[in-house]
Amino acid sequence: MARILVIRFSAIGDVAMVVPVISSLAEQYPQHEFVVLSQQFLHPLFGQTPPNVIFYGVKPTDYKRMKDLTRLYTELQSLRFDYVADLHNVLRSKYLRLRFALSGACVRHIKKGRTGKWRRVRRWFKVRKPLKSSFERYAQVFSALGFPVRLNFTSIYGTAKAPFAGIERFAGVKEKGVRWIGIAPFAKHKGKIYPLELQEKVIAHFAGRPQYKIFLFGGGKQEIAIFNSWIRKYEGVVSAAGRLDLQTELALISHLDVMLAMDSANMHFASIVGTPTISIWGATHPYTGFMGWEQSISYTLQVEMDCRPCSVFGQKPCRRKNYACLYRITPEEIIGKIETVLHAP
Q1: Which CATH class is domain 166-342?
Q2: For residues 204 and 258, what is the distance between their CA atoms, to the nearest angstrom?
Q3: Per-residue pLDDT tens over the stretch 184-209
Q4: How many CA within 13 A on the CB side of residue 99?
Q5: 139 Cβ partners below 8 Å, 6+ apart?
């Protein structure tokens, strides 16, 4: 038996994208053990993986200094890893993989394709073609270690959904004929957030109708305040923000009929539990490699503009100053897309 250390500290969506790869690997190599090193609170993402996947949770804030990283390496070294897959390739993971390489472990790291992504987002002469997905880049690391993998993942719950009993107390009974719609309107950066005044129109369309129930996903005081204002205005709207732990939130998402999300962690959460996901793309683009697992490009909403994508992660300010890439997506388009998914066979 070989023991493989898999390193990916952040971001949340990128860690979620590890799940389909590590689950496929673990099933295809049951004789080996895979230890995932990541942030402690992300443990539920790996709670349903095969038994030969072990989660090693840490708080990155506890390992900012060199002596702290050395302590972490010493802790990990006691587990005697034969291979190390660095899926993050940042300063902390570089230090760890160097120490493991010096100790004799076989080490490989992700090639992020920064040049290709820069060509995709540069202001002039953009290269408009799909880049490798993060799933493919992760898989390449394991292939380089000698573990080629066929990505055959379906959901963290397999072909089923999470047990309903775990969410019934919060969500209530799912009555026959009632469609559950999830809406996650926020993202880390402004360039990825659909304007809230337009988002509210989407909520208003479905709210109060007996055949729909809307669940809002997010977190943070400001987001919760906005959600509470919508709940006061509209019937049939429930906020999950700040009320559920990650494990229960994933279970709830698995029972949705559709999720509307930005290019964000919630898009990836919905993807890995097998929920059809409509994603809105503004400053970023699905062709940069961050599309959710097995999500169809036909379920994306975006406006083709010469200036977009202007950023890989959506953090750069809009050159036009008006975020036209988001404002030109109409609420009617989003409503139509949601209804199309809900009525699909």
Answers
A1: alpha beta
A2: 17
A3: 999 999 999 999 999 999 999 999 89
A4: 20
A5: 21, 148, 149, 151
pLDDT band, residue 264 (cuts 50/70/90)? very high
Statement: residue 136 has pLDDT above 80: yes
Q: Which helix (H) or strand (E) holds 180?
A: strand 179-184
For residue 291, give the 3-state DSSP assignment: coil
Q: Residue range 2-16: average pLDDT? A: 97
| CATH no., domain 3-145 | 3.40.50.2000
Helix, strand, coil fractions of the chain, as percent rounded to 5 = 40, 15, 45
What pTM was estimated for this model as a whole?
Answer: 0.96
Type of residue numbered 327: Y
For residue 15, how many other CB atoms are within 10 A of its CB?
Answer: 21
Amino acid occupying residue 120: R
Domains 3-145 and 166-342 share a fold: yes
Q: What angle do CA 50, 140, 99 make, to 5 degrees?
A: 85
Report d(CA 338, CA 261) in Å as an integer. Answer: 11
